[in-house]
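Hey, quick one: can you model this chain's 3D structure?
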Amino acid sequence: MKGETNHRGATRPHITLSSAEPGIRGLFRFRPETALPLNQLVDVLLCGESTLTRGERELIATYVSGLNQCRFCFFTHAAFAAARLPEGMSLVEQVRQDLDAAPVPAKLRALLRIAASVQQGGKQVTEDQVAQARAEGATDLEIHDTVLIAAAFCMFNRYVDGLATVASDDPVHYEERARLATGYVRVLADALAGG
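Sure thing. Here's the predicted structure for all 195 residues.
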C-alpha cells in the first residue's frame, strides 16, 4: 500500500522480507514456521473461550500496543476491538486518551491497569492492583489472561518495531480485516495459501 512507513519514517524494514505486506503480516510470511505458533497463542488469548468478551480482550491488546506506540498493532487491534464493542472506535479512543475517564466497567478498567503495569515491566503489577481487579469481579483466569495478553503484545509490538516493519497510518486500511469473523490462525492459513 502506498504511503506506508515504519516508526522512523522509512519505507523499508531493517531486513528484506519476502512480501510487501505491512507489519507483522510480512514477518509471518517471511518466517511461516514461527507464524503458526504465534497465531495459535493469539487465537487462544483473543478468540478462545473466555468470560471476557472478544472486544474486551482486543481492547487490552490495543491499549498495550498504544502504550508501546506500535502503530501497526495499535491500528490493527483497535479496528478489531471497535468491530466487537458496541461503542466502537469511540470507546477505543476514550480508553487510549484517558483510561480513568473512559466509560468502561470497573472490572475492565482494573484489568487495563494491570495490563499497563505489565507493559512497564512484569514486576510493576502490584498485589493492590490484583486485589482491586478481584474486588471488581475479575476471576483468576481473567487476571492471568490479561497479564498474558499484555506480555504477548509487548513481544508482538517489539517484533514489529524491532524489525522496523512498515504500516499505514490510515485507520480505514485496517477496518476491512477487522470484520473477519474467523480467528487469527484461519486468517493466517488463508493468507499463506493465497500466495
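One thing worth noting: The two ends are 17 Å apart (CA to CA).
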